[in-house]
Hints:
With 186 residues, the protein is mostly helical. It is built from 8 helices and no strands.
Amino acid sequence: MSGGAGDEAEYSDQLIVEQIVEGQKDLFRLLLRRYERQVYGMGKSFFRNDEDASDFTQEVFIKVFRNLSHFEGRSRFSTWLYKIAYNTAINGINRRKEYLSLAEGDIEASSDDTPERALMRTAASRAVQDALAELPDRYRICIDLCFFYDCSYQEIEVITGFPVNTIKSHVFRAKKILREKLRAIV
């Protein structure tokens, strides 16, 4: 795997993992670059502060690095990684019993937003955040993995251990609750 920085995108996660396991440990930086933001975002969802999310991210990537030889390629690498991250978060959050959806983060304003648009964007964001905050954690976790991590129901099953039909039900119910809550605001 030689070449410039632009070449890294053409290599599959599977190929990178195989080469790391074969001894090219420095290639781990490619996986770190690809997934650090997503893992950090999951950490923010669970732990609600930058310091804990950073510690969580570091812990997850240490676990991933140590266990790369156990990745069998039966699922996407990202699914395997998110399962490790999810389990690490669940183990760490059990004391806190609280989960914050990624959708509850700050919405970035566009540089071409007018003050009115920025105000409307902020108000809409707050309405969605408030509605999400009222969902049961299990619904919010499924919504996050589905819409913010682009995971299929089967991948969510692998990550969370929830059966696919339960995941479908959680997503359906969450969307219905959100639709009703947001319709009442509008």
